[in-house]
Every structure is written in C-alpha cells, then in structure tokens.
Amino acid sequence: MIDPETHLALHRIRAAELRAQADAYRLAAEAEPPRGLRTRLGWTLVELGLRLATPRPAIV
C-alpha cells in the first residue's frame, strides 16, 4: 500500500501539471483571432473567385 505522504505528494505534482496544462490552453485560446467574420470573408472570397473562374456561356 502507498504511504499517505507519498500519495499526497504525487497528487500535488499531478495537480500542478494539470494547472500548467490548463493555463497553456487558456493562453492559446486567447491568442486565436475570432473566426466568425474571418470565416465569412474567406468563404465570400472563395465564392467570388469561383464566379470569376467559371466561363460564361456564349451569347449567340
């Protein structure tokens, strides 16, 4: 069986690791730009490019 002091020390180490991972995740999430407007603008540009690249039917 694990000594209670050893168990507590392992628990503290793991808790510190989890806190560090959570902090890193929070910092990465804050650094990302908002995607709503950027995504809409990107798809609008794709649609415009496809319209420009599609040949128009010949008028006879």
Please explain how this structure is put together.
The protein contains two helices and no strands. It is mainly alpha-helical. It has one domain (4-53).
> Low-confidence segments, ≥5 residues, pLDDT <50?
none
Which structural category fits the helices and strands? mainly alpha
- Which sequence of SSEs, written as H and E, runs from N to C? HH
Strand content: under 5%
pLDDT averaged residue by residue? 88
Query: How many structural domains can be distinguished in the coordinates?
Result: 1
Number of strand elements: 0
CA-CA gap between termini: 90 Å
Shape: rod-shaped
Largest sheet, in brief, is: none
Oligomer: single chain
| Rg measurement, Å | 27 Å
Separate helix tally: 2
Outline of this structure?
This protein is an all-alpha fold and 60 residues long. Helices cover 77% and strands 0% of the residues. The protein has helices spanning 4-31, 36-53.
Note the topology:
Layout: H1 4-31, H2 36-53
Provide keyphrases for this structure.
60 residues, mainly alpha
